[in-house]
Amino acid sequence: MKCPYCSYEESKVIDSRSADDGERIRRRRECLRCGKRFTTHEVIETVPIIVVKRDKSREVFDRNKLTGGILRACEKRPVSIEQIENMVNDIEAQLQSSLEREITSKQIGELAMDQLKNIDEVSYVRFASVYRQFKDINTFMDELNKLLTEKK
């Protein structure tokens, strides 16, 4: 495992423990060159999920992209990193348990919005505004009205 600080490829495992209900192994490592510690997560390698984007191009599902999008939507909001990790874990688990090996970016966006709606409405609206590409204020207001209707 390459050290994120000095890029040295040798490290020793200091601690290992199960994470995410046994789906992952969290390891604390120490670089043998610089001595700094870092965490890695080990997961079972699975058949990759292919994301079909709006322009019909295809790419392998990237958990980091999903996390980044959710992080941006939750910026300066009372949403913890742990909640975001749980959301991403849940979405990824839903994708993995699906029999589909190709999934549209639209489906992933909908799953993310479902999760965000239950955690923080402002983050939900932020995510939806980018994801649904609101063209004008009316589209934005329509989404807010839907959210208000569902809340009642």
TrEMBL record:
Keywords: ATP-binding, DNA-binding, Metal-binding, Nucleotide-binding, Repressor, Transcription, Transcription regulation, Zinc, Zinc-finger
Ranges where the ATP-cone domain occurs: 49-139
Cofactor note: Binds 1 zinc ion.
ZnF endpoints (unnamed): 3-34
InterPro entries: ATP-cone_dom, NrdR-like_N, RNR_NrdR-like
GO biological process: negative regulation of DNA-templated transcription
One term of GO molecular function: zinc ion binding
A Pfam family: ATP-cone
Cofactor(s) recorded in Swiss-Prot or TrEMBL: Zn(2+)
Keyword check for Repeat: no
UniProt KW Transit peptide keyword: no
Described function: Negatively regulates transcription of bacterial ribonucleotide reductase nrd genes and operons by binding to NrdR-boxes.
Family: Belongs to the NrdR family.
NCBIfam families (alphabetical): transcriptional regulator NrdR
Protein name, as recorded: Transcriptional repressor NrdR
Annotated organism of origin: Ruminococcus bromii
Gene label: nrdR
